[in-house]
Amino acid sequence: QVQLVESGGGLVQAGGSLRLSCATSGRTFSNVGMGWFRQVPGKEREFVAAITWSGGSTYYADSVKGRFTISRDYAKRTVFLQMNSLKPEDTAVYYCAADSRTFYSGKAYYEAAFGSWGQGTQVTVSS
Q1: How confident is the model at residue 26 (pLDDT cuts 50, 70, 90)?
Q2: What is the pLDDT of residue 41?
Q3: According to the model, what pLDDT value does residue 101 have?
Q4: Which of 68, 65, 63, 64 is nearest to 79 (CA)?
């Protein structure tokens, strides 16, 4: 298991930026892909972005492509989500997650594939 702690959420005006961080501990960080998901009350949790274990590939939901950037720092065992040009519809609780599959380099990133989750951080974008 990987322990995950998110930070960096908050209130921002539309058009603004936030940078989420996810600090990890426990299981080897460098062997697994990492992802960000988000959830609005009353709706299912949705995929936002993922980065492979090597950091060589990144994947994004269409709704955030071109505005959000996922990255990882192996020395700090931390994954980041830089969010620019934020919109009110980006308002949600954002969750960091660690893939259960080690050394996976495919393109299939879905909720069930992630076995470890953080507690979530609230992002609110005002119009």
Answers
A1: confident
A2: 93
A3: 92
A4: 68
The b-or-e profile of 50-69 (16+ CB within 10 A means b, else e) is bbbbebeeebbbeebeeebb
Rounded CA separation 34/94 (Å): 13
Please name which of 33, 36, 34, 59 lies closest in space to residue 46, comparing C-alpha atoms: 36
State the residue for tokens 């996810």: 22
Degrees, nearest 5: CA angle 43-46-51: 165
Q: Which of 30, 32, 92 lies closest to 61, judged by CA?
A: 92
The amino acid at residue 90 is D
Which letter does DSSP use for residue 27 in this model? S
**Tokens 């990890």 correspond to what residue?**
24
- Report the half-sphere exposure of 80 (CA within 13 A, side-chain side): 11
Between 26 and 80, the more confident residue is 80
- Sequence-ordered alpha helix ranges (H) in 39-79: none
Distance (Å, whole) CA 77 – CA 91:
26
